[in-house]
Amino acid sequence: MVLRGIPLPAEKTGAVAAGVEPRPRNKLSTSLAVFVLGTVIGLGLANGLDVEFVAGLVILAVLALVLGMLHRVSEDTRRRLTAGEASYRAFFEHAVEGIFRTTPEGHYLAVNQALAQIYGYHTPEELITRLTDIGAQLYVDGGRRDEFRAQMQANDLVTDFVSEIYHQSGKRIWISENARAVRDWSGALICYEGTVEDVTENFEADRALRAALRQAELANKAKAAFLAAMSHELKTPLNAVLGFSEIIRDEMLGPNGQPAYRDYAADIHLSGKRLLAIINDVLDVSRLEGGTLVIDARPTDAHDIAEQAASMARSTTGDNRHIVIDVPANLPSLLVDPRRLGQALGNLLSNALKFTPAGGRVAIMAQQRGDGGINFLVEDSGIGMAEDTLAAALEPFRQLDGSLARKFEGAGLGLSLARALTELHGGSLSITSAVGHGTSVTIALPASRSQRLAQSA
């Protein structure tokens, strides 16, 4: 909001200021002038006066009539201007926003009550009297007024000019200014006028939000760095547990003497592998969040990836049930990272084995779409999921059964990691499931991951 470049009236005076309109005398004056004119002409003709004398009287009467009309126009104009200035003064004084008019040098010419309150003064007069140098007294940054003037000189306009200023109490607040340059008919600069808004609350909230985001970013980087550093520390003792338990289980150095020891060693080995898989998943999530996990794409056979995924799922779960593998022999080779894609499919198969009772069916299939892309499907006849839980299942560290006594164990990372690794390949992951009717998960790879199409392109 910018004000008109007209002087502010010093006070409200006369009938307009009191809210009373002057009485309509214009019609009476006109009627009287016409009557006098008619009377003069009639008397002149009746008394046999010369035509020239009568014409002179007519001219005088017409002049009197014209002067009366001009006086009427003048009165109407003065009344409208006075009413307009009074309305403008009322608007100026009662506006919610702070309004000002200053010299280019930085002295206040006029301010309203709202601006005085924003700056901490009781009245506009107090502000004008005490705040005599805007550049030196108002802005915290001493060069801010120079920036304001520079923008005015360049554009005759300043918008959303946000600055930190000194409140009369001594505290600091933030304001936003919108102003324009007022020039006379010759283009000479007269003053600046505009509005001020206190934006301290919004500015402080925005600054606090930015600080919180910076802290969150730093904390995320610190977490990623910590997990990366701990990777070696976590895996080294686990490798020892796995290695020695395997030696004991397989009696590589001779018979144990007690058959139960072999069973214990087998349990230790299986538990260690599960723990290692969870650690690897957590580290992979950290790398994905930090953007440091990348894929190493190379030509890979789709059947080999399916076999790798099935082997990984059996090893992780300790469940050696048969997994149906249906991959056509004529399927083209894939330009993928076999380790990461196998990890994604292995996680899906691990879930399928975990949630499918004995006697159920678990399968992995592959097929080529009409657009040349490849779909991998992992299907099971297990317990399934409700439709309203599918989105939650794809979030990391989410357990659909969060109780301590839950029947199915796991860190809740399998599905979210599978989706993230699929997206690294430019693909997408979708789930179809129903409680009691099993689950079907599809990994759809784009046509660019088909080596046959990539070579032809």
Report what the structure shows.
There is one protein chain. This protein is an alpha+beta fold and 457 residues long. The chain has four domains: 14-94; 98-198, Beta-Lactamase (2-Layer Sandwich); 205-289; 295-456, 2-Layer Sandwich (Heat Shock Protein 90), CATH 3.30.565. It has helices spanning 14-17, 26-46, 51-94, 113-119, 124-130, 134-137, 144-155, 200-249, 259-290, 302-317, 338-354, 390-393, 414-424, 451-456; strands spanning 98-102, 108-111, 157-166, 172-183, 189-198, 298-300, 324-326, 334-336, 362-368, 374-380, 428-433, 439-445. Strand 4 and strand 5 form a beta hairpin. Helix 8 (200-249) packs antiparallel against helix 9, helix 10 packs across helix 11 (338-354) and helix 11 runs antiparallel to helix 13 (414-424).
